Amino acid sequence: MEASWSSGESTSLAVEILRKIARLEGDDVADLPPLGRTIDVEAVEQVAQTEGTRISFRYLGYEVVVADGQVAINDR
Q1: CA 64/CA 25 separation, integer angstroms
Q2: Is 5 contained in some domain?
Q3: How far apart are alpha carbons 32 and 35 in whole angstroms?
Q4: Of the candidates 56, 59, 16, the residue with the CA atom closest to the CA atom of residue 36
Q5: Strand-strand pairing, 70-74 and 54-59
Q6: Which among 21, 23, 41, 76 has the fewest CB atoms less than 10 Å away?
Q7: What is the pTM for the complete model shown?
Q8: Which residue ranges does the record assign to the Halobacterial output domain (predicted)?
Q9: What is the DSSP code string of 10-75?
Q10: Residue-wise pLDDT tens digits, 11-58
Q11: Is residue 25 included in any domain, yes or no?
């Protein structure tokens, strides 16, 4: 698992997720399908700001976990 996003950073949660997935896929972020087709990005970013919240979903076969201000991408 990888973690580097926190609620205090200026990079949006969605951008951080896409960057990590692109790195794992060996692709450019622009080549990935929009994250908004999988989740409601605004809702996830808002809920992720709540302490003690854990959100997980699948994107391109990866499990994405957002918890305690951290993003983890679990390999397929």
Answers
A1: 14
A2: no
A3: 8
A4: 59
A5: unpaired
A6: 76
A7: 0.80
A8: 10-74
A9: SS-HHHHHHHHHHHHHTS-GGGSPPGGGTS-HHHHHHHHTSTT-EEEEEETTEEEEEETTEEEEE-
A10: 688 999 999 999 999 999 999 999 999 999 989 888 888 889 999 999
A11: yes
Domain, as residue range, for 68: 13-74
**What contacts 59, CB < 8 A, 6 or more positions away?**
17, 21, 35, 38, 39
| Rounded Cα gap, residues 26 and 48, in angstroms | 27
- The amino acid present at 24, given as its one-letter code, is L
pLDDT of residue 22: 96
The count of structural domains within the chain is 1
For residue 52, tell me if it sits in a domain.
yes
Type of residue at 70: Q
Higher pLDDT residue, 49 or 10? Answer: 49
